[in-house]
Write a structure and sequence with these properties.
This is Uridine kinase. Helices cover 35% and strands 18% of the residues. With 184 residues, it is of the alpha/beta class.
Length: 184
Amino acid sequence: MPLYRASRAEVLSSLADEFLHNYGRGRAFLAVDGGPLADPAGFARDLADVLRAGGHAAYVADAAEHGAAGADALRDGLVRPFRRPGLPFALRPGGDPVTDAPDDAVLLVSGDALQAPELRGLWNAVVYLLLPGEPLATAGGDAGSAAQEAHARYIRAVNPRRAATMIVDVTDPELPRRVFADSC
């Protein structure tokens, strides 16, 4: 008899419940960190849909759209304006401002390297999307793309699993699996 595996919807619902349990009041930030093969943007959109279905305002921004100017652009252009209820914020540089976000809205930021030292402390929580073979496949320097090589360097330098609040193995995107990296 095969073991039960939670569906994508069940995993997303569980992540949303855990996040809202800890950060359900006031404006909150959730980073969805993962390499290009893990599709953090798609995962963040799906997680935002679950939050919205539960009655919470959720907005999704792609860190790469702010990334050309670095961490300061992301912090100053998105995070700081969102943090202050009543102020408009734009989900992408030059985008239409959101002016009607409630005081308890959630901002999900998706992208790679969101736990880099210059971005730590911006997020209330981080979901790290894990592809178990990814670090091994890229450790030799042949990742297949510049973005994947950058992600491999990030894994080696930062060890994002260690600092993430929630880890999800997305080897099978339709059946993601929550991973607990307990050290005890």
